[in-house]
Amino acid sequence: MRRINQTLVLGAAVLLLCLCAQTINSLWINRETQTRRWMINNPVLAGDIRVLDVREEVSDGALVVSVLLKNGWHMPIGGKVKMLFYDEKGVQLDDPWGWHQVMLESNQEQWFKFVAPAPAERISRMKLMIRGINRYSAAQP
Known about the structure:
Helices cover 18% and strands 51% of the residues. The protein has 141 residues and is α+β, with helices and mostly antiparallel strands. The strands form two sheets. A five-stranded antiparallel sheet has the order 2-1-8-5-6. A three-stranded antiparallel sheet has the order 3-4-7. The model is unreliable at 12-21 and 136-141 (pLDDT under 50).
């Protein structure tokens, strides 16, 4: 009976860890007020994949957003990142790009670029989404 209880507890813990690894953390960026607000559902994920910088650039009327991510863990990790754009009325614009795969070595920093699906003057808010990590092994020779 004791062994069954230990197995159930261990199984529940593994399930909880798997579910937490898929939780999405997001960073809301309001271009009108120049404010940023984190929505952290998974503190482990927020520490493992860190957002170091977000830069905006307008090129030929298009808004290009560059995001600098860093692996804050001592091992290689992977995940996904996505940027959603909202117009001046708060309506989410169609997302033609989807999720970008993230694979970072220990302490590696990497820039990711996103192009808004509408002219820069129409974009009022953005939402950077970071999805669950998978710790991966480096490729074997």
